[in-house]
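RECORD TYPE: inverse folding
INPUT: structure tokens
STRUCTURE:
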């Protein structure tokens, strides 16, 4: 006998209320109900302290990682207001700790509070409180010390007002919040110490006047203490990343712009800063906006790609640095030797989501592109010797790609029929009659792929080296990986002729799993490169 299905009617629709809005759906706020979401909750509390210090209230922030899994963040800001709010007809502690979309940062574009703020949505403090097993708050302001205690999203302080209040002679104001993430909400709350070290270091880099202190409890009575302070912010950090032998000096650009994302939108302000240098050994790009690390970039990444390719391409053309038939410089060429950190702020910010890992503002992208182009043009004019080093670095990279596929003492460009072989950028003859190296640019699954193909005198492939690509990480990008798998996959082409093709088409090349388009494109490009050499006669 089949089981009766429950009816679906008007009474079937319900809504989550109070703490359940977060406790039952933490991924909506924190991006995950796992460890990453738990880590993001920590950053939400830390962000409020950073915003206070950025406004000039306090110069140090201390984070404590306790052995029992609880966390504490303390600052010397103005202290969170918790008493009665006449305008809202509620206590401020309710608005801050128990109300989503409530806070003091909604008027940042009018100059009222927090002009450049990490927190904008009024979600973080409340959501973290709701997702905690417990939270204890101590606030010093206006000559009083306030205390609040929450358990599983409910105020359990035990007073009519919802907080305790007593006079204090403390000279410094501030807020201290200690809480323990709840295993009923998150699947994992054991945040590793490396997360704190990485996060606090990044914040010290982009907030040069703030000292960040981490205390990590290693026994009942012992705490290991680490301090982070970068006096010159991103300039010192880029120098640190580049090491002792950078190719060029560290450059710092800064500026300010005003504009709007759309004609019918309000105007807002953007402060732009960028530190960069070039290196023959290191490549690192990091974007920060309103102190938040943009792991996925968004608008700043698009701006950097456009500006650097445009500026360096213009320099190469103006100074006749391109060899005949040499392909235009690509971002991958530049990326491989670029160390760059941006640190920007805006009074209006459109994040992709609450986790703040990318921004989408059109005006920020446009303003940043022009800002970088102008800065690079001036830099190249005033530092021609360094500009030439950057251009030469690109050439060195090409030579390394040549040597990787057909080792020789030197290579000489050879004329070829470009009309007959439109995907071929250049053919270089290897000294000692060893064969040729063909540079080819063709379409992959996600964009252009530039590759060097070695061809011996028997018209067989001696190796391939991918110079630049835009393929998806973990899929088509495996074709370029310097891993054991990547080496094996590219090695399949050695000894193949102009009839090379994938196994599924009757050839000898196994396709990369879930990346057939990329695999087929590479095979086709190798075959075309060999045919171009055969055509030389």
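DESIGNED SEQUENCE:
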């Amino acid at each position: 006998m089949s089981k009766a299905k429950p009816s679906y009617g008007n009474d079937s629709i319900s809504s989550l209320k109070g703490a359940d809005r977060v406790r039952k759906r933490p991924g909506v706020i924190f991006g995950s109900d796992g460890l990453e979401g738990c880590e993001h909750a920590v950053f939400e509390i830390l962000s409020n302290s950073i915003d206070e210090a950025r406004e000039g209230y306090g110069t140090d922030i201390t984070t404590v990682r306790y052995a029992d899994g609880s966390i504490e963040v303390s600052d010397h800001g103005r202290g969170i207001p918790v008493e009665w709010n006449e305008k809202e007809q509620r206590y401020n502690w309710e608005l801050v700790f128990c109300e989503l979309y409530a806070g003091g940062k909604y008027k940042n574009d009018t100059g009222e509070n927090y002009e450049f703020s990490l927190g904008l949505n009024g979600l973080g403090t409340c959501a973290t409180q709701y997702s905690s097993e417990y939270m204890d708050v101590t606030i010093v302001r206006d000559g009083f010390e306030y205390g609040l205690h929450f358990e599983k999203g409910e105020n359990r302080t035990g007073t009519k007002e919802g907080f305790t209040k007593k006079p204090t002679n403390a000279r410094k104001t501030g807020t201290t919040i200690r809480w323990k993430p709840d295993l009923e909400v998150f699947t994992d709350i054991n945040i590793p110490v490396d997360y704190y070290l990485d996060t606090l270091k990044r914040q010290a880099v982009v907030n040069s006047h703030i000292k960040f202190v981490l205390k990590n409890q290693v026994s009942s009575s012992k705490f290991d203490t680490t301090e982070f302070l970068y006096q010159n912010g991103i300039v010192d950090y880029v120098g640190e990343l580049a090491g002792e032998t950078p190719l060029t000096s560290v450059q710092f650009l800064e500026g300010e712009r005003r504009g709007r994302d759309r004609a019918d939108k309000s105007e807002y302000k953007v402060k732009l800063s960028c530190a960069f240098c070039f290196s023959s050994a290191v490549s690192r790009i990091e974007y920060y906006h309103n102190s938040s690390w943009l792991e996925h970039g968004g608008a700043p990444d698009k701006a950097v790609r456009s500006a650097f390719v445009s500026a360096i391409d213009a320099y190469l053309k103006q100074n006749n640095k391109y060899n005949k038939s040499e392909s235009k410089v690509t971002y991958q060429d530049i990326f491989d030797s670029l160390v760059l950190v941006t640190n920007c702020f805006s009074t209006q910010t459109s994040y992709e989501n609450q986790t703040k890992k990318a921004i989408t503002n059109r005006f920020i992208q446009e303003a940043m592109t022009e800002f970088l182009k102008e800065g690079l043009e001036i830099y190249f004019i005033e530092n021609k010797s360094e500009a030439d080093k950057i251009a030469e670095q690109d050439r060195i990279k090409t030579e390394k790609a040549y040597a990787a596929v057909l080792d020789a003492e030197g290579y000489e460009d050879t004329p070829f029929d470009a009309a007959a072989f439109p995907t071929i950028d250049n053919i270089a003859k290897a000294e000692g009659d060893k064969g040729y190296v063909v540079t080819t640019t063709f379409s992959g699954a996600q964009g252009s792929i530039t590759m060097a193909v070695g061809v011996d005198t028997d018209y067989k492939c001696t190796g391939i080296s991918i110079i630049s690509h835009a393929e998806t990480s973990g899929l088509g990008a495996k074709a370029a990986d310097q891993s054991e798998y990547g080496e094996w996959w590219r090695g399949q082409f050695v000894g193949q002729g102009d009839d090379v093709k994938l196994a599924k088409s009757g050839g000898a090349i196994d396709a990369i799993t879930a990346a057939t388009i990329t695999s087929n494109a590479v095979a086709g490009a190798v075959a075309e490169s060999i045919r171009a050499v055969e055509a030389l006669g």
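NOTES: DSSP finds 13 helices and 23 strands in the chain.
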